[in-house]
């Protein structure tokens, strides 16, 4: 017997990697997971609010959106969000004049697109940055870590896009660079970063506001119990685990309460075949 919510969710949040797509390890190419196109098209047709929230911070939505549409995933830029989207709101709300960013040009482009003043390690402004933000940064070096740790020791706030060690790709689990950078800075400073991406409450509050719904009306769908499901549990949303990414059905059923999904489905295709949309 297929388990379904007592009432259809009024809105949906989808993870990207492992849920709607699989990237390659260099984030240069995408493969759409079967059923994802049809689900998004049907939600659009019905006028059901949805968005994608990825922990990937390498690209602005204006860059990643066309790439996704280029492989057939029908998602508009305004429905595509990253930890940079959440971080920008946090930085604005706190009135930070300058943020020291350990990230690629794409990370800085995204933040500056939201009106955030950014600087890089080695720049004069980095010496006075109000906050440090770590994100996708394959080229991070010891000078970068030294600059970030120095500002945190001097009292700058410490944020990160993601503290997740791995994410799903079509080549298998890939390394999350910001997690390693965070470990180095935290070990030196004794300060843990505040996460702006999943599973933070900041991210949950952001997506609920974007969808215009209460958390309990939203299905949060993803492949990682430590990310999407933990956020759903903590925020009071409907947690839905998929087995199309990093977590098997067996692993889902072994999760502790705080990471246990309300429902487990093979992939997003089940949202149509199993009657989730009513």
TrEMBL record:
Keyword Hydrolase: yes
Pfam family, one: Hydrolase_6
Matching InterPro entries: HAD-like_sf, HAD-SF_hydro_IIA, HAD_sf
Calcium listed as a keyword: no
Protein name: HAD hydrolase-like protein
GO cellular component: cytoplasm
Keyword annotations: Hydrolase
GO molecular function, one term: phosphatase activity
């Amino acid at each position: 017997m297929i388990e379904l919510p007592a009432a259809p969710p009024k809105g949906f949040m989808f993870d990207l990697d492992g849920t709607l797509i699989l990237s390659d390890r260099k984030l240069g190419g995408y493969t759409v997971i079967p059923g994802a196109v049809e689900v998004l098209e049907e939600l659009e047709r019905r006028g059901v609010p949805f968005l994608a929230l990825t922990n990937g911070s390498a690209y602005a939505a204006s860059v990643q959106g066309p790439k996704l549409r280029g492989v057939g995933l029908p998602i508009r830029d305004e429905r595509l969000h990253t930890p940079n989207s959440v971080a920008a709101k946090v930085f604005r709300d706190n009135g930070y004049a300058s943020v020291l960013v350990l990230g690629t040009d794409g990370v800085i482009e995204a933040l500056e697109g939201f009106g955030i003043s950014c600087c890089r390690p080695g720049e004069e402004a980095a010496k006075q940055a109000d906050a440090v933000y770590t994100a996708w940064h394959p080229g991070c070096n010891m000078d970068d870590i030294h600059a970030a740790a120095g500002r945190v020791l001097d009292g700058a706030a410490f944020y990160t896009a993601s503290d997740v060690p791995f994410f799903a790709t079509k080549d298998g689990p890939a390394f999350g660079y910001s997690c390693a950078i965070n470990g180095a800075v935290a070990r030196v400073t004794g300060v843990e970063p505040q996460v702006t991406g999943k599973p933070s409450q900041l991210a949950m509050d952001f997506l609920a506001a974007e969808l215009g719904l209460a958390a309990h009306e939203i299905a949060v769908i993803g492949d990682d119990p430590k990310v999407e499901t933990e956020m759903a549990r903590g925020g009071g949303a409907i947690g839905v685990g998929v087995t199309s990414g990093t977590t098997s059905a067996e692993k889902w059923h072994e999760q502790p309460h705080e990471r246990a999904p309300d429902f487990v489905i093979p992939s997003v295709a089940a949202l149509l075949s199993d009657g989730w949309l009513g």
